[in-house]
């Protein structure tokens, strides 16, 4: 996940694991690894906050992301939105506008 302009505080959590809270400096990235469980129900939740807002969203949901980003899921953060990208794509397919805090799937 990458943010331009200000630091981003993120907290990732699944049903079984708490990946903790991390502060990502502006224009830097942060990553983590996870595996889909045997039943294909892996679900990772994210809370993100920065000086311009906050968001809570599903950063990984096996039913949505197993084919969307089978090896690498990329997310971006800006002052007004969180964006998700299909593996290998330059344009986001998931867009969450922070003004309305609703998640839109663009595909």
Automatic annotation (TrEMBL):
Primary subcellular site in the record, as a coarse category: secreted
Gene Ontology BP terms: rejection of self pollen
An example Gene Ontology CC term for this record: extracellular region
Subcellular compartments: Secreted
Record-linked InterPro entries: Self-incomp_S1 (IPR010264)
Pfam families: Self-incomp_S1 (PF05938)
Domain of life the protein comes from: Eukaryota
Keywords of this entry: Secreted, Self-incompatibility, Signal
Family as reported in the entry's similarity comment: Belongs to the plant self-incompatibility (S1) protein family.
Protein name (database record): S-protein homolog
